[in-house]
């Protein structure tokens, strides 16, 4: 279900940039410096986490912090406002497939969490996905532990393996795109879930319907229109509720889910269907962390609340 990885809204398939283009800088030890870096956490109208960024000394601009985006993006209006030079194209994955999008050169990209120069950023094809001015991707944090503290309304970037007091680890894996996937159970069936703060709702593949013993015509499902992600395209979806989603130490009960319609027949025999774990569920957690080098999702559970 590789296609589902792209549903979460904003994961990228990134080709190698040409030699004359500004290179997207690799994460370095500086990105995981001993001193933690902290940013205030706000949200867009769809519940996705946002932080403020400066681009070429202008701003601040509010941008979605997207744990399922490989690279960072800007809305076309912001590209025009800043007068950024076009330097090529990259392929963007969205709900209904992929499309080419323009790549622009940025001299200086700065937030409270990082400070980078000579960066390539993509123009977001579907600018209606958020009222924010762009998306901060995970290319800056591949060597770090990213802490989303919903209770304190802050984001923290610190070294991998930092103190995990009161956190319970869910061991997962990094996808081929370097994004974190962890095991979850939906009504007793095991799935691989992509942790996606850039998705406002949680989305399951059509193959999940088959694994759960449902069909597209199941009376527990209702048409839910179409869903769109990073691209201009959309795909038909269904909505329904599952009894329980278990994520490590946490159980979500009576959970509404969006299912991609008409996809069950594409699931290969023995393949585990995928799930996009979006901000609708992640926002209910007190605090959670993505430790990319350790491939762990860590969920804060105070000692007195642990079983």
Structure report:
This protein has 4 helices and 23 strands. It has 307 residues and is mainly β. The strands form 3 sheets. It has a 6-stranded mixed β-barrel. A hairpin with a 4-residue loop joins strand 11 and strand 12. The protein is globular and about 55 Å long. It starts with a helix and ends in a 7-residue tail after the last strand.
Number of strands: 23
Please, what is the average pLDDT? 83
How many helical stretches?
Answer: 4
The largest beta-sheet arranges its strands as 4-5-10-6-9-8
Distance between the termini: 34 Å
Content of β-strand: over 45%
- Which structural class is indicated by helix and strand composition? mainly beta
Helix-strand pattern: HEEEEEEHEEEEEEEEEEEHEEEEHEE
Assembly type: single chain
The backbone outline, from C-alpha atoms, is globular
For the CA atoms, what is the radius of gyration?
19 Å
Major sheet? 6 strands, mixed, barrel
Low-pLDDT regions: 1-33, 264-271
**Helicity range of the residues?**
under 10%
Features:
307 residues; mainly beta; 6-stranded mixed β-barrel; 6-stranded antiparallel sheet; 46% strand; disordered N terminus
List the helices and strands and how they pair.
Layout: H1 2-5, E1 12-13, E2 37-40, E3 42-43, E4 49-55, E5 58-65, E6 73-74, H2 76-82, E7 86-94, E8 97-111, E9 115-123, E10 134-136, E11 144-149, E12 154-159, E13 167-171, E14 173-174, E15 180-186, E16 189-195, E17 203-204, H3 206-212, E18 222-228, E19 234-247, E20 250-260, E21 274-277, H4 279-282, E22 287-291, E23 296-300
